């Protein structure tokens, strides 16, 4: 029997800080969770490593740079021995970047870098994770998107701001919907965590990480097949596309 057989297994990208770190921290409060926390420089992820001493659950840290396709293709070799025969229950594509720009000032290289990190990386991470998800029980993919990717909500935000980021998250939303269509055996959700106090969200944000992440975990653990393909907020409300 695999050592993971009695635990719910999670793979989280961008776990070194911010939302990915808080997801990992909260999940490790329960002995029933095994978290594979992926980050691009584990040797610098000191806060993440420090969770090992207080964790009730099981923490494994793996190296993963989501804008580096070779790094993503090496992921199965790193996680297979951790997961054993038990498979993966939850994949959370969380790592992301944001740079300020507008349609007429954007640097094409920044747009490509943002798409590579926020959209293409999650697509490839999902591809390599699917064989593990197929063996898992929950079979859930959570893509951390943003309301900034909602065309229906665009008037709520400043004109043209964070254009590359918004494009990348709108594309991530479509990727999620396409995954739901292709794989009805999986539950795929695209979700906005709210405006959260992190390096990206800044201290001006409305939500403490703990509040946002508690909501996110409730939404994804409670999600059923009927929810697959939905664009949700951290409180579970549907966001207009
Ligand atoms: N905070 C908000 O208000 C807010 C709102 C809506 C959506 N979101 C989304 O929530 C997610 C997490 O955001 P956050 O607020 O936690 O941001 P953050 O504080 O800036 O943290 C970003 C995380 O992503 C990782 N990362 C960035 N590029 C990476 C790469 N190429 N490979 C691997 N890891 C990479 C960072 O790792 P390093 O430490 O190595 O840099 C870090 O762990 C993002 O997808 C973001 O778009 C955030």
Give a topology summary.
Elements: E1 8-13, H1 18-27, E2 33-39, H2 46-54, E3 58-63, H3 69-73, H4 75-83, E4 90-93, H5 108-135, E5 140-144, H6 163-182, E6 187-192, H7 209-222, E7 231-233
Parallel strand pairs: 1-2, 1-4, 2-3, 4-5, 5-6, 6-7
Helix pairs in contact: 1-7, 4-5, 5-6
Bound molecules: NADP nicotinamide-adenine-dinucleotide phosphate (NAP).
NADP nicotinamide-adenine-dinucleotide phosphate binds at residues 14, 16-20, 39-41, 65-67, 94-98, 117, 144, 146, 192-193, 195-196, 198-201, 205.
Q: Any overview of this molecule?
A:
One of its GO terms (molecular function) is oxidoreductase activity, acting on the CH-OH group of donors, NAD or NADP as acceptor. InterPro entries: NAD(P)-bd_dom_sf (IPR036291), SDR_enzymes (IPR052184), SDR_fam (IPR002347). This protein has one domain: NAD(P)-binding Rossmann-like Domain (Rossmann fold). The mean pLDDT is about 95. It has 7 helices and 7 strands; from the N terminus they run βαβαβααβαβαβαβ. Strands 3-2-1-4-5-6-7 form a 7-stranded parallel sheet, sandwiched between helices. The chain starts with 7 loop residues before the first strand and ends in an 8-residue tail after the last strand. It has about 240 residues and is α/β, with parallel strands linked by helices.
């Amino acid at each position: 029997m695999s050592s993971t057989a009695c635990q719910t297994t999670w793979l989280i990208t961008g776990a070194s800080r911010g939302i990915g770190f808080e997801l990992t921290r909260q999940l490790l409060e329960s002995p029933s969770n095994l978290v594979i926390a992926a980050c691009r420089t584990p040797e610098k992820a000191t806060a993440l490593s420090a969770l090992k001493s207080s964790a009730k659950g099981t923490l494994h840290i793996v190296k993963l740079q989501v804008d580096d396709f070779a790094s993503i293709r090496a992921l199965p070799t790193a996680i297979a021995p951790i997961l054993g025969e038990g498979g993966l229950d939850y994949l959370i594509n969380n790592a992301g970047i944001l740079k300020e720009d507008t349609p007429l000032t954007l640097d094409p290289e920044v747009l490509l870098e943002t798409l590579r990190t926020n959209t293409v990386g999650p697509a490839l991470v999902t591809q390599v994770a699917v064989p593990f998800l197929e063996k898992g029980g929950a079979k859930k993919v959570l893509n951390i998107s943003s309301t900034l990717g909602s065309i229906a909500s665009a008037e709520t935000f400043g004109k043209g701001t964070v254009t590359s980021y918004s494009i990348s998250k709108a594309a991530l939303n479509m990727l999620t919907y396409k995954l739901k269509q292709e794989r009805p055996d999986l539950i795929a959700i695209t979700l906005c965590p709210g405006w959260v106090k992190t390096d990206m969200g800044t201290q001006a944000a409305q939500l403490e990480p703990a509040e946002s992440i508690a909501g996110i975990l409730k939404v994804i653990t409670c999600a059923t097949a009927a929810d697959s393909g939905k664009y949700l907020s951290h409180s579970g409300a549907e966001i207009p596309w």
